[in-house]
Amino acid sequence: MDVVRQHGLASSFRRIMQGERIVGEGTVKLIEQSTPCAMVWIGAPMAHHAHGGLNSETILVGGAEPPDDNTAGGQPLEPDDHAGFYLWPTDAASVTLTGLAEGDAVEFQVYI
Questions:
Q1: Whether 99 contacts 23, CB under 8 Å
Q2: Can you give the pLDDT at residue 12?
Q3: Domain edges within the chain
Q4: What CATH topology corresponds to 3-111?
Q5: CA pair distance 5, 29, nearest whole angstrom
């Protein structure tokens, strides 16, 4: 489902990408390839998630390249936060995810 329409945001946004990203223990980029964008939605996976269901720990979402061992900064995405939240980066590859448990993941949508 397109979360922009679900949450009543301006219809001028167009989804160009969606998916899931396994984070695990450590810090990864949301996506590896530079992707200019206007908005990103990130949420915790629901029970139907293809890689094993619900998260067990909080994932920290940051907007800048953190050190490899960063586990202290970022906006927290709780394991049951299926509604998620929006970020406004100019490049989706600048969004970082720091996981605290192996196998934890996020679902995401990228908009222009």
A1: yes
A2: 76
A3: 3-111
A4: Jelly Rolls (2.60.120)
A5: 26
